[in-house]
């Protein structure tokens, strides 16, 4: 899409400011719940969890949006959805706790992801990782920051020089053969391969230059909305496994890296297309 107008940029800034105002208390709430609450349930299968913190976080965020910006629409992972009043309104795409399995097992790699979308394009986002003391923020055309400091993707040009991260879908068992082939490709050439388990933070880790590349399939819009704009604003190239631009609501996978590393990564992700093609019997 074209560059954002100053009015649109201000509107996004105003919206992110509302989220930034509520985050300190929300971060404390979910950190406390991680050690005090055992309430959890499953969704699509035994690996797909929802916790008390997911529901609390979503309620706090969506209530603030509905209070301050009632004209906007909401798409949230745990089901708080509302339609826009007109086509010019913004859509909020929210993962109240990204990396719920990590969160439920008292691991540190999880986050709160809030993205703002217009015309199907992410234009603003915040990813907060309270256990890591990290908060990422970006507005389209304005750059990306970590804890208020501008960030850029790594300048490395060889896969052997850094770490590649990936993730696996909840129905990974039926796709394990193809997922393993892609993983093997990177094990042979990358300086390291990791699976941290929170897509929004994986996007941000590329944005911050901590890792050199990230690939994953079957992400949902709330997994990507904030992280995608943060990574792009930090200089990342982001495509699907065929090298096409990512559609937040239709694409089946992502490859995220600086342009040089992206070119090297893309062929190694070819087995992911076979993994996507697998259907449950």
List the helices and strands and how they pair.
Blueprint: H1 6-36, E1 40-42, E2 49-51, H2 52-68, E3 73-76, E4 91-98, H3 100-104, E5 111-118, E6 121-129, E7 134-139, E8 144-146, E9 149-150, E10 163-166, H4 176-189, E11 192-194, H5 199-207, E12 213-217, H6 221-233, E13 237-239, E14 253-257, H7 259-268, H8 271-277
Parallel strand pairs: 3-4, 10-11, 10-12
Antiparallel strand pairs: 1-2, 4-5, 5-6, 6-7, 7-8, 8-9, 12-14, 13-14
Helix pairs in contact: 1-2, 4-8, 5-6
Explained architecture:
- With 281 residues, this protein is α+β, with helices and mostly antiparallel strands.
- The protein is 38% helix and 23% strand.
- The chain is built from eight helices and 14 strands.
- The protein has a seven-stranded mixed beta sheet, with helices on both faces. A five-stranded mixed beta sheet has the order 11-10-12-14-13, sandwiched between helices. The protein has a two-stranded antiparallel ribbon with strand order 1-2.
- A hairpin with a 4-residue loop joins strand 6 and strand 7 (134-139).
- The longest helix is centred in the N-terminal third of the chain and has 31 residues, at 6-36.
- The radius of gyration is 18 Å and the shape is globular.
- The chain starts with 5 loop residues before the first helix and ends with a helix.
- The model has no long low-confidence stretch (mean pLDDT 92).
């Amino acid at each position: 899409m074209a560059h954002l107008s100053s009015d649109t940029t201000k509107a996004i800034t105003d919206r992110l400011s509302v989220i930034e105002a509520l985050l300190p208390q929300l971060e404390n709430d979910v950190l406390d719940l991680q050690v005090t609450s055992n309430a959890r349930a499953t969704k699509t299968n035994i690996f797909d969890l929802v916790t008390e913190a997911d529901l609390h976080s979503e309620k706090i965020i969506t209530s603030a949006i509905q209070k301050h910006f009632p004209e906007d629409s909401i798409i949230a992972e745990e089901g708080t959805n509302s339609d826009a009043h007109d086509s010019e309104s913004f859509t909020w795409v929210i993962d109240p706790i990204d990396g719920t399995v990590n969160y439920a097992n008292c691991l540190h790699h999880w986050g709160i992801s809030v993205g703002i979308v217009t015309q199907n394009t992410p234009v603003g986002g915040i990813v907060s990782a309270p256990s890591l003391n990290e908060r990422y923020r970006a507005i389209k055309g304005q750059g990306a920051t970590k804890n208020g400091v501008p960030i850029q993707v790594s300048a490395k040009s060889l896969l052997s020089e850094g770490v590649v991260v990936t993730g696996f879908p909840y129905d990974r068992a039926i796709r394990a053969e193809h997922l393993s082939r892609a993983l093997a490709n990177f094990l042979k050439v990358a300086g390291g391969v990791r699976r941290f388990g929170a897509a929004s933070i994986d996007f941000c880790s590329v944005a911050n230059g901590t890792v050199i590349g990230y690939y994953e399939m079957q992400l949902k819009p709330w997994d990507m909305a904030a992280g995608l704009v943060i990574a792009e604003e930090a200089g990342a190239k982001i495509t699907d496994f065929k090298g096409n631009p990512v559609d937040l609501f239709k694409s089946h996978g992502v490859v995220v890296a600086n342009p040089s590393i992206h070119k090297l990564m893309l062929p190694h992700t070819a087995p992911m297309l076979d993994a996507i093609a697998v259907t449950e019997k």
